[in-house]
Request: fold
Amino acid sequence: MSGIFALAVGVVGVGGALGGQWLAQGSESQREAARHVAEAERDKRSDERAIRDRKADRLRRAYQELMILALDMSVRAWRWRWLPAEIQKLPDDERVARTNQLIEEASIDHGKQNIGVLLESDSHAGEVLDIYFRIEEKLREHFFNIVNEVQHQTEEGGRAAKEFADQIQKEVNRLGDTVRSHLADLEKPI
Reply:
């Protein structure tokens, strides 16, 4: 009996060892699968971050160009405040030349900035471009006010010019705040 018992114990021992090894391999396979899933998630987040960062860089450049245009419009508005009085003092031939120069300054070249903002911005493009176009519209109104003031000088011209310049500056500030907010939203951690 002891031979059968020893054989049974040996079979059970071998079976236990094989079962233990099978369990260890299964556990190792589970750990390996979990490691692969974790690596895949890490790679996916890394890819999402890289895509987001490239998009943020393109959008930052588009916003930067748009802000430069908006700031340029604001500077023009402030510079034009005294223009009607200056033009009135000029001789006729110089007045025509200066008025033509003003018309040239008033033309705005949008370039590709608006397209870049529209292409890269998901949720804020409309808001940003609305503010930008309000700035542009105010500058255009300011320009026509100046032309009118040159032709029919009034005492209200200087005050109106300051109001236009103030309104444009207010919109430029709003544009800057909106752009900063959008970029902050875009750069939230993934």
About this structure: The chain has a mean pLDDT of 78. The chain is about 85% helix and 0% strand.
